[in-house]
Amino acid sequence: MAELGTWDPLWAYAFLLISAFLENVIPPVPGDAVVVFSAYLVGRGVLDWL
Fold first, then answer.
1. Tally of domains within the chain
2. Contact status, residue 6 vs residue 41, Cβ threshold 8 Å
3. Residue partners of 30: CB distance under 8 A and separation at least 6
4. Which range of residues forms the domain containing residue 7?
5. In angstroms, what CA-CA distances link 10 with 17, 25, 35, 48?
6. Domain for residue 15, yes or no?
7. Contact yes or no for 42/3 (Cβ under 8 A)
8. What is the pLDDT of residues 2-47, one digit of tens each?
9. Positive or negative torsion for Cα 12, 17, 18, 22
10. Cα distances (angstroms) measured from residue 2 to each of 10, 34, 44
11. What pLDDT, on a 0 to 100 scale, did the predictor assign at position 35?
12. Would residue 50 count as lying in a domain?
């Protein structure tokens, strides 16, 4: 978890985009868990609220 703070936020945004796309194309992909995790990262200040 601490290592995520050192990564470029662009990778996190790209991952969110891809996971949202896959959730709509392939229903078994757990998109809600990704959204909750990204909300956690926003709360920690790793990502910016868009």
1. 1
2. no
3. 23
4. 2-44
5. 11, 23, 16, 11
6. yes
7. no
8. 665 677 778 878 888 888 888 888 878 777 788 888 888 888 887 7
9. positive
10. 17, 18, 11
11. 81
12. no
Q: Is the residue at 49 inside a domain? A: no
Token pair for 1: 């978890």
- Residue 11 in domain: yes
CA angle 31/19/26 to nearest 5° reads 75
Spell 4-13 as b/e; 16+ CB within 10 A means b. Answer: eeeeeeeebe
Query: DSSP for 1-50?
Result: -GGGGGS-HHHHHHHHHHHHHHHHHSTTS-HHHHHHHHHHHHHHTSS---
